[in-house]
Amino acid sequence: MGGYRQFIDADELKRAGSGIGRKTMRLIWSIILLSCSTATSLWAQQEGGAASGAIRALEHEWVEAQAHNDNRALDLILDNSVVYVEYGQLVTKADYLLRIRHEDPSTDEIVMEPMSVRVFGSTAIVTGSYRETQRQSGMRKFTRWRFIDTWVYKEHGWVLIAAGSAPIQD
Amino acid sequence: MRRGLLLTMLLSILASHGVSQNSDPRDIEGKLLALERLGKLQATQLKDLKMLNEVLDENFVVVDQNGGQMNKAQVLAFVQKATSLHYLTSEMTVRLHGNTAIVTGAYQLKGILPGRRIDQHGRFVDTWIEKGGKWVAIASLSTPTN
Predict the structure, then answer these.
(1) Distance (Å, rounded) from C-alpha A117 to C-alpha B63?
(2) Fewer CB within 10 Å: N-end or C-end of chain B?
(3) Which spans in A68-161 are helix H?
């Protein structure tokens, strides 16, 4: 009986001990999980920030490449199945590169305005506006455009998969 | 009757659009086309804001054919405010890039807004992503056809 009682006591002690252990373990796990979640959140923010910076740089590279008929750079920026809507027409990568190759860069000038980048994991949406000056037969035509570009992160980095713009009506 | 049929079709699509992780690309394309076609029709014609709320991501952004920009709340308010709206789509194509999809097509938007009538034709480019097992629209651009 005594032995049984002792056994019970020992068991209760063990349980009491494991209860303290559980509480401590729970606290430790909470701290670990909280640290992990904070670290993950910070990492995600940093990743988002890095992605946003890379995409902004690519947007500027795109404008530069177009201004200099740099088809090699454009080929790297644009995904092979990119969809580009230009003046209400759907344009493929091949059509776009062909147009750029034969375009006189002095006839078209683009000035970028502030843009906003939203990152959704491996997809990013860029919205913004730009001013376009077209020179034809000694005349200048100014148009302000609002655009949406979609980028995805593929094997070798961010590539443009869709782009389009609409003329801003004043 | 027609409304009931549309609603039934849409509900079945919405109910199934969550299970797409390992789906055949053709199934995903079919679902996205149905969501585009019926979703826009349902949302604009029947002012189904609940449905719109489900398919538009919280960070959804739209650029309309006048170059105006709206967020999700503004789109919902626009649809709610309109006296009548008819949005018809055609020539739609889906391009899949993993869990991101680009849908392009032609559209016709006719309607009556407070104080004005609209009749627009153009092209659209919509971006969808798979988020939490569901396809949601994150961006939409409309531009006039010349």
Answers:
(1) 15
(2) N
(3) 71-77, 93-102
Domain definitions of chain B by residue range: 2-144
Please state the pTM of the whole predicted model: 0.79
CA A61/CA A125 separation, integer angstroms: 17
pLDDT tens-digit profile, chain B (146 residues): 444 444 444 444 444 444 444 578 889 999 999 999 888 887 888 888 998 999 999 999 999 999 999 999 999 998 888 888 888 899 999 999 999 999 999 999 888 878 888 899 999 999 999 999 999 999 999 999 86
B-chain residues within 8 Å CB-CB of A79? 97
Q: Please report the residues numbered 44 through 103 in chain B whose beta carbons come closer than 8 angstroms to any beta carbon of chain A.
A: 57, 59, 61, 63-69, 95, 97-100, 102
B-chain residues near A145 (CB < 8 A): 67
Map out the domains of chain A with their CATH numbers: 2-167 (3.10.450.50)
Do the Cβ atoms of B123 and A83 come within 8 Å? no
Distance CA B102, CA B82 (A): 27
Question: Under CATH, which architecture does the B2-144 domain have?
Answer: Roll (3.10)
Rg (CA), chain B: 15
Q: What's the rounded Cα separation, in Å, for the pair A119 and A27?
A: 34
Angstrom distance (rounded) from CA A41 to CA A117 = 18
